[in-house]
Every structure is written in structure tokens, then in C-alpha cells.
Design brief:
Elements (H helix, E strand, L loop, with lengths): L3 E17 L2 E14 L6 E5 L3 H4 L3 H15 L8 H9 L5 H19 L4 H4 L6 E3 L2 E3 L4 H13 L4 E5 L4 H15 L4 E5 L6 H11 L8 E3 L7 H11 L5 E4 L1 H5 L10 E5 H4 L2 H13 L3 E5 L5 H14 L13 E2 L4 H8 L7 E3 L8
Parallel strand pairs: 5-6, 6-7, 7-8, 8-9, 9-10, 10-11
Antiparallel strand pairs: 1-2, 1-12, 2-3, 4-13
Helix pairs in contact: 2-4, 3-4, 6-7, 8-9, 12-13
The structure holds magnesium ion (MG).
Length: 356
Amino acid sequence: MAFHLEIREQVVGLRAPLVASWGVLDRRTLFLVELHGSDGPVGRGEAAPMEAYDGVSDDACRAALRRLAAELEQVDETEPGHVILDRLTGVTPVQQALAAIDLAMWDRGARQAGKAVAPLLASEALDSIAVHKTIGGVTADEAGRIAAEAAAAGFSAFKVKVGLGLEGDVARVAAVREAAGPDARIKVDANGAWSVSEALDALDRLLARPLRVAAVEEPVSGSDAWPHLRAAVNAARFEVELCVDETADREPGVLSRGPDVVEVKLARTGGIGPLLVKAALARLAGVHVALASTFDGPLGIAAAVHAAAALKIERPLGLATLDALDLDDAPELAELAARLQPVNGRIAVPAGPGLL
Ligand SMILES: [Mg+2]
């Protein structure tokens, strides 16, 4: 009694192109999978590779999913889920594809148990999680308009893309501060665009009144730069949370070299199980954990929301990204996305059964 995996591709446009220091994103492919056993509920998952950002092409993800589908045809479906998932990690190194199967296994298992995923992962999981509004490298006017709209919808935390030229960065953040009000929490994300000295110059401007940025993500790139950045930030007595993102994927050892927070992304981590392990080990290393999406579809966001709820993360997370996707031609996904709509800056953890 083996599994059967159905794979469907959905190309989804972004409502507006996302500009970051690594490039421009205007569309993405979601690989939607359905895991069928001989009986019982169907498990749903998704793979969301983003080549411009994580280097995994749609072709590589497609090929990996096909290999995983072939392997699943050989698997004894009555074996425990972790045995099956372990076996699959030997089939492909493409984490985005492995995550799709991990999600589908959790979705199916939780449906069988008649429960949501979060309470299967932890007792007293949160029932909602705080999220921030992400604003790309747009003009200051546009940033202000987006921030005002988000603030009116209840957001009090914002993440703004920077590293695109300091004057423009400062103007963009100033517009967000102006629109969002003095109490909003603003984080900036440079996607590794700065050197240590550029980061210091930028922080000098961005931390000052009235901008008062609270956190900076991936200010510099590469593990070697982090101890210098940490020492310089301490010497300057800057009060800012330092978050590491892309560098931690390439060089996990960076966690002991200065960051306060590590951003973990479900799609790149291979699914819920590996994400929880990574988060627990990061916390042991004295680093806080945040979760963010790589513009995942609703199933990926739902899985990250369950994981964040189980990890009891209180800080605002980068999971309010579904609004950026144009789902007008994908009514099924639009319906799922609607269930994850943030209300007053929080996403309610889906009550189950399953992921969503
Ligand atoms: Mg980032």
C-alpha cells in the first residue's frame, strides 16, 4: 500500500513587482501537491522555489518532485511519517520539494487525527501570531501609501526593504514612519547589500529620530563580516536588533558570531519538522527565532503559522505576504488565502483539521 502524489503547477503574478537588493520579483510558480493514500484523507502541500532569491529553479523543483513522487509509490504508507520523511531526504537535496511532501504528510496526519497541526506540535500553542507588513524597495510616496493603508488595517509592525541607495532608503523609511505613527515597529532588510561601514552609516541615519528603526535584517552578507558588525554596533552604542537571514542558510555557524535573531524560512528548511529542530538549536545558541515566507502560497504560510504558534514566537513575523500575490485567476488558492487574512496585525492559527 503505497502513496500516490499528484503535482499541479500554478504560476502566480505579484500584484506589484517586489524590488529588493537581490533583484525584482514579479511572478512565481507554486507547485501544489496532493498526497493520496489507499484510503483516508488527502494531504496537501506546496513547494515554492524562488530562483532569484534562493537559487532553486522551477525545473530543479519539478524534477525533484517527480523523483519524490516515484519514491512515494514505493513507500509503505503504514510506516510512521518520520520514517518516510527520512527516506525521502535521501532522494533529493531540494528543500523546497521536500517541504511540499513534509507539509502534505502533516496535513494528512492532522486530518486523520481530526486536529490542527499546531496542537500536534506543542501544548499551549498560540492561537494567533503577530505579523508585519512588508514594503519593498518602492518610492517614498508609494511606501507611505502602503504603510498608511496597512496601518488603517491594523498593522503596527513594518518591514521595509533597504540597501538600494542610502538617500532613497532613508526617504522610504521616513515615509513609513510618518504614515504608521510613532508607536509602529519598523524593521529594515538590506538583503546583505552593505559592507560593515556602510551598515554603520545607514544605521546612524535609520536609528535616529524620527525614523527609530528597531531592527535590521541581513545588513551584511557572509559570516566573516558579522563579528565586525557586532563589535562596531556595540562600540557605537546602537540599540538595534541584528537579524541574520540569507547568511545563516549558507553558513549556519554565523549564529555564534553576533546576530540577535535568525530568520528561518520553511520552504528552504525542508518543512515543519526540520524547521522546529533548527529553531530549537538556534535558541540553544542564544539566538531568537523569527519565521518569514519567500512569498509562499497559502499552504506554506499556514504551515509556518502552525510552526510559529508551536514555537510561541511573540515577535512580528514576515508571514503577511499573501496579499502580494494576485490570486484572481486561482480561486481555490484565493479561498485558502482568505482564511489567513491578518486582522489587526495578527493571523489566526487555522483551527483545523489539517493545515488549513
Ligand atoms: Mg530577509
